[in-house]
């Protein structure tokens, strides 16, 4: 696997690959790779001639400085994992490579915000999704036409990148299932920061989703009722500070909870456990155990 510490060299390489009529699969990451990331890389390897991964901890998407400072970094093991998963090229860069001459506050203001940056994450992590949009636009420009793989765990992010890709053209966004531990906890780089007790408590998010899923299977379609059962489940754990337990129509994103019964429902939760922010979500009716 080739590792390039330069987005412009990565751009040249991707252009050369496409000239050779090879298809490119692309997995953007912030490193600290786990099996969730590797499942995206493996899918890309299966579906494309050449797989590219980027590793860049994007400071624009951290609204809390301490979260950025404590974000896990493991570049050497990341490279080994990518190589073993069949990745062909990985690249990284510095902030100034992506946003030459721009200060952070100016970099975030460059583009018209996508419509999916509305409610939930926007209300609780102001600036986060704008920061994601800004870097993903640059990352897509580096790689060019490709299939880009994102995990469903960051559901609202997937809506933003789909909207962005439709605006730019040439990038086909593929959303892949959330990869979970055996007890249901969604894999996340931040899980490494949980102590043993917190690690057990963290599974409450999955239990809350599961409770809503069960209620859905009995025919309940009222979003507020589905939200309440998730909230009650989270409240059982005093250490969890709930940000939101929400139901949204996945095909018609709104800032507020739908008031009429929903035919399709995405259940989304965010909660803090100590200094670690956990998020999870699922399409109701899809959880089986
Ligand atoms: O999902 C992530 O890891 C990040 O938000 C992304 C898409 C790599 C942008 O920094």
Structure description:
By secondary structure, the protein is an alpha/beta fold. It has two domains: 2-176, Rossmann fold (3-Layer(aba) Sandwich), CATH 3.40.50.620; 189-283, Pantoate--beta-alanine Ligase, Chain: A,domain 2 (2-Layer Sandwich). It contains twelve helices and nine strands. It has helices spanning 7-19, 35-47, 65-69, 75-85, 95-98, 104-107, 121-124, 128-143, 155-168, 196-201, 204-217, 223-235; strands spanning 2-4, 24-29, 50-55, 89-91, 146-151, 171-176, 240-248, 266-273, 276-283. The strands form two sheets. It has a six-stranded parallel beta sheet with strand order 1-4-3-2-5-6, sandwiched between helices. The chain has a three-stranded antiparallel beta sheet with strand order 7-8-9, with helices on one face. Helix 8 packs across helix 9 (155-168) and helix 11 (204-217) runs antiparallel to helix 12. The radius of gyration is 19 Å and the shape is globular. It starts with a strand and ends in a 6-residue tail after the last strand. The mean pLDDT is 97.
């Amino acid at each position: 696997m080739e590792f390039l510490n330069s987005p412009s060299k990565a751009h040249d390489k991707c252009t050369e690959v496409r000239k050779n009529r090879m298809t490119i699969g692309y997995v953007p990451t912030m490193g600290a790779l786990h099996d969730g990331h590797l499942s995206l890389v493996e899918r890309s390897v299966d579906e494309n001639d050449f797989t590219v991964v980027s590793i860049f901890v994007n400071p624009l998407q951290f609204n809390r400085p301490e979260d950025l400072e404590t974000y896990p970094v493991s570049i050497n093991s990341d490279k080994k994992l990518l190589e073993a998963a069949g990745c062909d090229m990985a690249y990284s860069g510095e902030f100034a490579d992506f946003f030459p001459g721009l200060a952070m506050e100016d970099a975030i203001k460059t583009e018209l915000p996508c419509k999916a940056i509305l409610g939930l994450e926007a209300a609780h992590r102001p600036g986060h999704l704008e920061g994601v949009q800004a870097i993903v636009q640059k990352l897509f420009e580096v790689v060019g036409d490709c299939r880009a793989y994102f995990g469903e765990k960051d559901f609202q992010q997937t809506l933003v990148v789909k909207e962005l890709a439709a605006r730019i053209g040439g990038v086909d966004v593929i959303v892949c299932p959330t990869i979970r531990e055996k007890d249901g906890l969604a894999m996340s780089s931040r899980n490494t920061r949980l102590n043993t007790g917190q690690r057990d408590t963290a599974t409450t998010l999955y239990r809350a989703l599961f409770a809503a899923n069960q209620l859905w299977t009995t025919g309940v379609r009222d979003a507020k009722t589905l939200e309440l059962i998730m909230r009650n489940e989270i409240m059982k754990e005093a250490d969890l500070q709930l940000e939101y337990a929400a139901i949204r129509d996945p095909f018609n994103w709104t800032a507020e909870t739908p008031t009429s019964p929903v035919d399709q429902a995405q259940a989304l939760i965010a909660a803090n456990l100590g200094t670690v922010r956990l998020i999870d979500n699922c399409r109701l009716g899809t959880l089986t155990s």
